[in-house]
Amino acid sequence: MNMSHFGRRRFIGAGLAAMTLPLLAGTRASAQDAANIRMIWWGGDERARRTNAAIDLFKKANPQTAIQAEFMGWDDYWARLATQVAGGNAPDFIQMDYRYMFEYARRGAIRPLDEYLGNQLKLEDFGKVNLDSCSVDGKLYGGNVGVNAFALVFDAKAWGEAGATPPDLKTTWDGFAEKCAAFMKGNKNKRVSATADGSGQETLFEIWLRTQGKALYNPDGTLAYDAADAGRWFAYWAEMRKAGSCVAADVQALHKQSPETTPIVNGRSAIDFVHSNQFEGCQKLVQFELTATGTPVQDGGKPGQYLKPSQLFAISAASKNPAATARLINFLIAEPEGAKLLGLDRGVPASPAIRDAIAADLNPNARKVVDLISSITPLVGALPPAPPRGAGEINEVQIRISQEAAFEAVTPEQAGANLVDEATAILKRAG
Amino acid sequence: MGAIRRNGAGYMFLAPWLIGFFCLTLGPALASLYLSFTRFDLLNAPEFIGAQNYVRMVTADPKFLASMKVTLIYVVLSVPLKLAFALAVAMVLNRGMRGLPIYRAIFYLPSLLGTSVAIAVLWRQLFAADGMVNGILAQFGIIGPSWISNPNYSIYTLVVLSVWQFGSPMIIFLAGLRQIPTDMYEAASLDGASPSRQFWRITLPLLSPVIFFNLVIQVIEAFKAFTPAFVISGGSGGPINSTLFYTLYLYQEGFSYFRMGYASALAWVLVAIIAVFTAISFLTTKYWVHYDD
C-alpha cells in the first residue's frame, strides 16, 4: 500500500512538473543559477573512469552545478532505476537503453527534449537517422551517445593456421557454413570450433530475418515471422552443430550475454557475434588479435544490419533541472572536450565532427570499431520498428528455446513453433 | 497503565526490534499482499485485478510449474543429504579429539562463505567443462560433462554446493550430542550394545528434537535458496530452466519484467508452501521426536 501511494504521488508530481517546467526552464536558462544534477548510468570500471573525468571537466567549467553520479552493472541497473522512478526519486540524468526508451517515454517517465534542441542541445550534425532512432512517436527523448552495429568478430591467426578464409562483408549464410566447414577441416586445436552458436542471439536472428525481407516485429507490435521461419533458423544452426562447425550446446550455454563469457574469449570458437561497442572489451580479454566484420548476407537479399543507438542520455520527467541536465548531455555527446573523454566506450559518436575530433587519440582497436561502422554504413537497412512491450522477455525465451534445440530436447521445427507460440503469448500478456 | 510502567523498560529495549518489525517487515509484507492482487509495473500505479495473478499461476504458467519442480527436487535432495553429512561430521568431532575448536571453525567456514557470490563464482569454475572437477576425473580416464551448463546435471552441482555448507546444522548437532549423558552409552556398552545399535537406540532418539529443529530450518532455507542459482546461471535459471529456483523466477518476474503484482503473488504462494511444509513437520513430531520429560 505504501507503494501505491508513492506511485500516485509520483504521477501527480510528474504531471505538475511537466506543466510547470517549460515555464521555469525559460526563466532558469538565462539565470543559470545553482543546479543539482543526479545522474545514473550502467557500466564497468573503464567507463566509470572516463565518465568521471568528463563530469569533473564539466564541473570545472560550470562550478555552480553539482553532480552526483551513481553507476552499477546492467543487471542491477533496471531494477534500481524502476524503483527510484516508482518511489518519486528519479535521477535527473538517466542513461537509457534503446529498448527501454519506448517503455519509459510512453509512460511519461522521461521528458521530450525537442524544446532544448538548438539551445542547450546542439545536435544538428547528428543526422536525421541518429535523431529518429532516439525518438518515440515523433518526439526526441534522448541524446544519441554512440552508434552501434552487430558485428562478426574472428581470430584471424586461427583462421590462417587452419588454412581457411575468414568471412567478410560479402559472405552469405551458405558461404558462412562452408567457410566454417573449411576451418574445421584444417583445424588442429580440437578445443576450438569455427564459430559460436548464434541460434540464441536475438539480434543475429533479426539480421537473418531482415536479409529475407522479414523482421522480428511489425510496426503494430505483432510478431513479423512465423514458425516456419524460426524453424529454418534453428535448423541452420542444428546443421552447423552436426557438422561440428559450431560449439557444443554445453559450451554455448556458458554464454551469459557479457564479453567475458563469450566462446571466443574463452578460447572455444574462432568466430563470435557481439555488438560493436563490445569489441574493445573482448579484445582486452584475449591474447590473440580480433578482427571485426559484418554479419553474413543473403545473395540478392536485403541489408540485414542496421545502426542503432548503443545508448541514450535522457532526462527524467520529474527533474527539477532539465535545462542544466540538457547542457550536461550536450557536453558529453556534442562537445569535443567531453566526448573525447568518453571515447568510443559507449559506441561510435553520431556526429562526424566529434568523430574527427577524437580520431587522433584513438588506439588501433578503437580505430577498428570506427572502420567497421564506416564500412557497413553503406550496407545497412532502416532501423527496425520499435520493439513492443515484452520484447526483452522474448529475448530470454529465444535463448532457452535455442538451448532446448541444441541439447536436442526438441527438433528445430518444434523449437520454431514453440518460439512463435511463447512470443505470441508474451506479447498478448504485455499488450 | 501499571503494566506498561512495569514493563516499560522491557518495551524500550525491544523498541529497535519492534520498530524494525512493523516498519521494515510487517508493513512491506502487507503491502506486497495487496500488490499480489494488482497489476503493478513500478512505473504506473497498481491496478486491482482480483485473484487473476493466482489464477494464472495455476492455470497458465508453465514456468511456475517448472520452477516449483526444480525447487522441490532441490529441497528433497539437499536437505536430507546436508543433515546426514552434518550429523556425521558432528559425531566425528564429538569424539573429544584434540584441537576441536580449530576443526569446528574450519568445518564451519564454508557456511559463513556459503551465501556469498564469491563461492558461487568459485563453484562455477570448479564445475565448468575444463574446471577442476573434470581435471580430477580426467586422471581416471573419465571425460566429464560441463556440469553447470548441462541441463541434466546443473541442479546437482547446486545440491552439492548446499551440502558442502553443512556448518550451521553441524554446530547445532554438536551441541545436541554434548547434551546426551555419557552414562547411557556406558550402560549400553556394558549390556553389549554395538556402536550402531547405540546410534539407533540412544543417539538418534535423544537427538530427535535437534534433528527436528535443523530439519525445519533447512527446509525453509532450501525453499529460499537464491544466490547460487542466480550467480551460476547468470540470473537466467538456465540452461533450459534447469536451475530456475522458485525465488529466481520470482526475481525475474519482479525485477527483469517488472511484474511486481505477479511477483508478490508468487512470494505469498511461497510463504504458504513453506507454512504447509513446516506444519507437516510439526504434525509428524509425535511419531518420531522424543522430548526428554
Summarize the structure.
Chain A: Pfam families: SBP_bac_8. Chain A is an alpha+beta fold and 431 residues long. Chain A has helices at 2-31, 45-61, 74-86, 98-106, 128-132, 156-161, 173-186, 202-211, 227-242, 249-252, 279-285, 322-334, 336-342, 352-359, 364-376, 391-406, 412-430, and strands at residues 35-42, 65-72, 93-96, 135-136, 139-140, 143-148, 150-155, 271-275, 290-293, 308-315.
Can you describe what's shown?
- The complex is a heterodimer of chains A (431) and B (293).
- Chain A is α+β, with helices and mostly antiparallel strands and 431 residues long.
- Chain A has two domains: 216 residues, Periplasmic binding protein-like II (D-Maltodextrin-Binding Protein, domain 2); 199 residues, D-Maltodextrin-Binding Protein, domain 2 (3-Layer(aba) Sandwich).
- Chain A is built from 17 helices and ten strands.
- In chain A, the strands form three sheets. Chain A has a five-stranded mixed beta sheet with strand order 2-1-3-10-6. In chain A, strands 8-7-9 form a three-stranded antiparallel beta sheet.
- In chain A, β1, α2 and β2 form a beta-alpha-beta unit.
- Chain A is globular and about 65 Å long.
- The two termini of chain A are 25 Å apart.
- The two termini of chain B are 39 Å apart.
- Chain B has a two-stranded antiparallel sheet with strand order 1-2.
- Chain B has a single domain, classed as MetI-like (MetI-like fold).
- Chain B is mostly helical.
- In chain B, β1 and β2 form a beta hairpin.
- The model of chain B has no long low-confidence stretch (mean pLDDT 87).
- In chain B, α3 packs parallel to α7 and α4 runs antiparallel to α8.
- The relative contact order of chain B is 0.13.
- Classes of the chains: A alpha+beta (431), B mainly alpha (293).
- Chains A and B meet through α1, α3, α10 and α16 of A and α1 and α12 of B.
- Chain A: This is Extracellular solute-binding protein.
- Chain A: Keywords: Periplasm, Signal.
- Chain A: It comes from Endobacterium cereale.
- Chain A: InterPro entries: Bact_solute-bd_prot1, SBP, TAT_signal.
- Chain A: Belongs to the bacterial solute-binding protein 1 family.
